[in-house]
């Protein structure tokens, strides 16, 4: 591979990458968006679950504050309970909620459901089980420093499993709280007895001393979201591919249909041509048998007459009879020769050459000098005729037949005149033989080229000349037609030769 090829290869590769880049980027964007949307749906579900749990905790807090405490204080006032009595199982809502959540997790376990981590995490816990871990500790700091932040949530990975982690600050420490969370010596006696050490004491009002830290497992949801994303993405890509494939297929089918339709049209044209040729052949067979019949009838009739004359010894008449028989035989011979000729034109074509039309026309006119002089016809040939690429011998026949035709149909013209010339029509050279003879009615313009179609039955010739011309010109890939202003106005026989000739 030389440098040039390498460059071309590089350009092609870059183009391929560029072309592939757009669908790939589009696919990635679609997949990422889908995954985000589906995950968000599942996560919002998990978040709702968390909030429900926290709300039910709050409900329990309320119950303890508003129902249990008043009932307890009433009993203490009435002397039913000792003034020093303190039990977190009754007094501390954080205790009750934690224990309650422990039971809840046990129930979840029994039901085969995943447990839900919950902690009222504090940096200075009274009960060591409430000790905040490093992360929770940092969140307590964050909530205290940024009062506008009311919650924190994040998908976290713990031991290979995914969880939605959620945290909100617990109640702000108020003066009422300070009674049990301020100086140790100020707290109720019973409490002091139960909780030795400084944990939970020395707190200040106006800060968050803890957060509610909770997390629910979302591994299943996230893998479901992933599977959904994958299948949806694959589905969308498949749909796109199907769409494009379908378009390409349609294009291919359309193309095929067009070509088939064109083929049908072509075939139909060929069929029509064949039909025309068949009809022509039929006419031909009919005309041939008809035309051959009349000399035969003549021969038959005159051989009968000859026989009679022979028996009678009428020798003078016999010479006449013989002449008629011989003439009829000659005519038959002419007809058969012409027929043979016309049938061979299609098959025998001499090699084409650049033919000097000036010379060719001159030759033909020399051959026809006799009949031309007899009819006293003046012939003009346009000078400098362009050469024609054709079969010379056949072209001679064409010109000869056209000039003969002009001679035969000259009529009683006082100043008979034939002109051989050429003109140009949209880049094609049109040669023509023009006369000022009897002319042709427009309705016969097609017919004149048919076999044995003589316009004037009395005229000489077999009537095959123009059919022969037509055949030769067609074999040359050209066209022949007649132009005439009508009867008595002369006619112009024009022909062209196809491009390949
Ligand atoms: C009557 C005493 C009392 C009052 C008033 C009180 N607490 Fe407590 N608090 C306790 C006890 C006892 C515990 C430890 C319970 C346990 O063993 O889990 C506790 C625990 C907590 C905890 C759990 C962390 C830890 O230290 O173990 C938080 C947070 C808390 N209290 C916040 C408050 C807030 C905020 C207020 C005011 C709105 C308040 N407390 C009022 C007695 C009290």
Computed CA radius of gyration, to the nearest angstrom: 59 Å
**Helix count, per DSSP?**
12
* Helix and strand run: HHHEHEEHHEHHEHHEEHEEHEE
Physical arrangement of strands within the biggest beta sheet: 6-8-9-11-10
Task: Please indicate the count of domains.
Answer: 3
Q: Which overall shape is indicated by the principal axes computed on the Cα atoms? A: rod-shaped
Uncertain runs: none
From the N-terminal CA to the C-terminal CA, the straight-line distance is: 47 Å
- Please, what is the average pLDDT? 87
| Molecules bound to protein | heme C
Strand segment count: 11
Description:
- The protein is an alpha+beta fold and 501 residues long.
- It has three domains: 11-217, no CATH class; 238-345, Helix Hairpins, CATH 1.10.287; 351-496, Histidine kinase-like ATPase, C-terminal domain (Heat Shock Protein 90).
- 58% of the residues lie in helices and 14% in strands.
- The chain contains twelve helices and eleven strands.
- The protein has helices spanning 3-77, 88-91, 93-110, 134-145, 175-181, 189-194, 219-312, 315-345, 357-367, 369-375, 392-408, 465-475; strands at residues 117-122, 152-158, 161-169, 210-217, 353-355, 378-381, 388-390, 417-425, 428-435, 479-484, 491-496.
- The strands form three sheets. It has a five-stranded mixed sheet. The protein has a four-stranded antiparallel sheet with strand order 1-4-3-2, sandwiched between helices. The chain has a two-stranded antiparallel ribbon with strand order 5-7.
- A hairpin with a 6-residue loop joins strand 10 and strand 11.
- Helix 1 packs antiparallel against helix 7 (219-312) and helix 9 crosses helix 11.
- The longest helix is centred in the middle third of the chain and has 94 residues, at 219-312.
- The model has no long low-confidence stretch (mean pLDDT 87).
- Heme C binds at residues 88, 91-92, 94-95, 98, 120, 122, 125-127, 130, 170-171, 173-174, 176-177, 179-181, 191, 200, 209-210.
